[in-house]
Amino acid sequence: NSNSDREPYYEGKNMALFEEEIDSTPMVASLLNKLANYTNLTQGVREHEEAEDGVRRVAVMVPQMGTFIGVYLPCMQNILGVILFLRLTWIVGTAGILGSFAIVSMCCICTLLTAISMSAIATNGVVPAGGSYYMISRSLGPEFGGAVGLCLYLGTTFAGSLYILGTIEILLTYIVPTAIVFKENNSEAMHNNMRVYGTCCLVLMALVVFVGVKYVNKLALVFLSCVVLSIMATYAGVIKTLIEPPDFNVCLLGNRSLRNENFETCAKTDTIKNTTIPTELWSLFCSGQYSYNETCDEYFTLNNLTEIRAIPGLLSGVIKDNLWGDYGPAGTVIEKKKQSSVAAQVPSEEKNMNYLFNDITTYFTLLVGIYFPSVTGIMAGSNRSGDLRDAQRSIPIGTILAILTTSFIYISFVVLFGACIEGVVLRDKFGYSVKKNPVIGILAWPSPWVIVIGSFFSCCGAGLQSLTGAPRLLQAIARDGIIPFLQVFGHGKANGEPTWALLLTVGICEIGILIASLDDVAPILSMFFLMCYLFVNLACAVQTLLRTPNWRPRFKFYHWTLSFLGMSLCLSLMFVSSWYYALVAVVIAGCIYKYIEYRGAVKEWGDGIRGLSLNAARYALIRLEEAPPHTKNWRPQVLVLCKLDSDLQVKHPRLLSFTTQLKAGKGLTIVCSVLEGTYMTRGNDAKAGEQSLKSTMAAERTKGFSHVVVSSNLRDGFSILIQSAGLGGMKHNAVLMAWPAGWKQARDSSARRNFIETVRETTAAHQALMVAKNIDHFPGNQERLKEGTIDVWWIVHDGGLLMLLPFLLSQHKVWRKCQMRIFTVAQMDDNSIQMKKDLQMFLYHLRLDAVVEVVEMHDSDISAFTYEKTLMMEQRSQMLKQMQLSRTEREREAQLIHDRNTASHSSANDKAVGAAPDRVHMTWTKEKLINERNKQREGMGVKDMFNMKPYVDLNQSNVRRMHTAVKLNEVVVKKSHNSQLVLLNMPGPPKNKKGDENYMEFLEVLMEGLDRVLLVRGGGREVITIYS
């Protein structure tokens, strides 16, 4: 025997005990084998080179990227970018060293805390392609995942437009200033230039991305080396200032800084060969030729020109001047504070173009919004999780190291810029005072062009990366299927390149480019990234606090307090940097959240929010348990007892419609049913029944829980449900069921017995009971009753449920137009006028609007008709007991009695003499009945009636009860035969079980001639109060 033949044999011997489970649960050895061979398919390009959908995936080499190449460098490249080169010097000049230090520290701490949370999530299990979106959606659920995913997508897309605007700003300001299309010398013309060139650049980049991502990836290293070289050049320049400061000078008129692209010499006049001639500056400020009587700008005449070094150097002590901020409104002239000057009496307007101005109003919070994009990009490593050799080790180390490195670079730059560069130069955003060079460029060694070219390529590369990353992120969200209207963006080229997503990204990117200002786009970008980071921190905090069993990150250096600190910092930064953008971002995220909640696909990702709901529910239930609810908080928590037919469909769906109308989605609803049999044989039926209940509940818009139990008989099943449905404080306090319409025709008495036992059990359990007669005639949820009344017949007070139900019904659209009427019954010795006044007062205190009517019922003699009804009832039960007929005969017998019963009652109501069917052999004849009725009409006394032989043996309590039922029924039918719904007090079943069938008969008589009836029995406690 070969080895392979023996294996299953041995497995069978050793594992015989588990052989039945092997089909559904694999053996551990085979499971381990599968897990070891699991390869995390690479993301991005490699993934898209495989055929999609249905075709077997091509085996790919296991990705081999370490921490340095895979995480550290991409993060560095994404974090260091456009703001560092184009705005950091201006931020330092405007906010001062201390203010800038505060801004940089806040933003860096925010990203560091986020990175710690992100590391915890990323190391909690395998993170497939999709990076941060995948992490958040699997930790916080589809709603948050979708909202955050789209925020991250919009952030990445706007980052693309920010980088493109940066590219164009470098191009038009420093590289080819002559290439401008709109020549006017104002900011609007510059914006239009940015729009034109930005759009062209965007189209070009989109084409590159469309043609092939592999080119972008190959160029990544070139772009990264540009960034590194630029930073090295800057540090080298700082060191060089110690040896000899660079020879860039700034020209000041008085204390105002001048744009020096239009003149060479910083003097009013120049002496050449002993002749004094005016310089270019003179012609800029004065009109006409050089002479002492010509009109010059007053400020120009009063003040002298001085030339100072733009970069005094590290040891010059300029750091003291730059410690504090210098904010100002748009249009303020940039001045050197310590320089003396003489103010002009009449400020000149037309010559102002030669000074330097603040182009926007500056304040601390604005600078936070502009600076924040320069710390984003911490997700770059986790977005490549698919390409890493060991993602769980690389992501935390690489990301945190990258953040620490870049934070060091930013903070050192803030201090070094403040210590080396003159304040007026720092505040000069575009470098006009230093011959149109970037300010960081004049500090760099060997030449400003290092920075210009380096930053240009760095911005290009970052823009391309954004345009590559954003469509993939959108594609991942679309493929998850949680946002239905995004489905189209899941499709792409044959190799999976996201073409449609790229088009949308270009469209959104264009919006950013049309804004045309780096300073306006940056805060928008900050919002979306801050929103995303906020949710990463929230995800980590929620998982840590819930202590989900699956939360076992390999990265141990996290704590929920850090996550909460990160979360609150993100939220604060959002509202600090721009409260209106923050509100817009929150509203967008909120709308997406709600949309996914209502329309999105139902996904079960084992997310933390579900765990949070469970914990919250458990906490609330434990709190509820402590005390029974106060009368003010009492509302019907309904247990609906439903019947399922043989196809496991709900027999009376209107029962659920009525529940919806009664509850309006509030409180607890448990819809239950019982199947006869054993759970082992009918387990699948129970599941199918539950599904059927759920679908009917959805159709009838009933919010609640459904439950089907299997029991040896219906009686026990309903009993178990009444006792044990609900949980803790969330138990039902009322039972709703349909009246068993066919109890008389039933072959056995089980329907009747079940019903009466249910009534007894709800009473014993102190639960209210509502029984609906003709439930199928009740209005559906779509119907609107235009008029009519809800009539309450308040005969005995059992807690005020009768008053509360019509009020609750009238809250629903179906019953809103119905008027509530309350009838109460006065006996002979009651003062009916006083009763009516009292009742009106009571309803006024209860704050219920209803018409009150008191109906007087006199102690009339018991009619022959009542005796006849009682006799029939008793004879029927006697017959069924004594005559041991075969089942079919008994059924026919019962039917005949029923026919006669109905006929006689209708004839009595019509006050007409109807012939009762004489097929049933009775102790008295048809003629005798007619005679008795005629005699009664003539006013025959009740004593004579007792002399009639057939009535003497009747049970007197039954006669009395039947008398009440008949009299009450007459009154109710007379007053309420046209009402939309009649609510009646339900009399309790007899203590003695012998009278059970009679009890059903009394109820039938009580409800006869009425269409929609709700019998109500209170639960023995007050449910309505006059107190606030």
Automatic annotation (TrEMBL):
Keyword Transport tagged: yes
Subcellular location(s) of the protein: Cell membrane
SLC12A transporter C-terminal domain mapped to chain residues: 764-1028
Catalytic activity: K(+)(in) + chloride(in) = K(+)(out) + chloride(out)
Coiled coil ranges: none
Broad class of the protein's primary localization: membrane
TM region positions: 65-86, 98-122, 162-182, 194-213, 219-238, 360-380, 400-426, 500-518, 524-545
A cellular component term, taken from the record's GO annotations: synapse
Key words of the record: Cell membrane, Chloride, Glycoprotein, Ion transport, Membrane, Phosphoprotein, Potassium, Potassium transport, Symport, Transmembrane, Transmembrane helix, Transport
Membrane topology: Multi-pass membrane protein
InterPro entries: AA-permease/SLC12A_dom, KCL_cotranspt, SLC12_C, SLC12A_fam
A Pfam match: AA_permease
Domain of life per record: Eukaryota
Domain Amino acid permease/ SLC12A: residue ranges: 71-241, 355-639
Protein's GO biological process: cell volume homeostasis; chemical synaptic transmission; chloride ion homeostasis; potassium ion homeostasis; potassium ion import across plasma membrane
Record-level Gene Ontology MF annotations: potassium:chloride symporter activity
Entry-linked PANTHER family: SOLUTE CARRIER FAMILY 12 MEMBER 7, SOLUTE CARRIER FAMILY 12, CATION COTRANSPORTERS
Family: Belongs to the SLC12A transporter family. K/Cl co-transporter subfamily.
Protein name according to UniProt: Solute carrier family 12 member 7a
Organism in which the protein naturally occurs: Amphiprion percula (Orange clownfish)
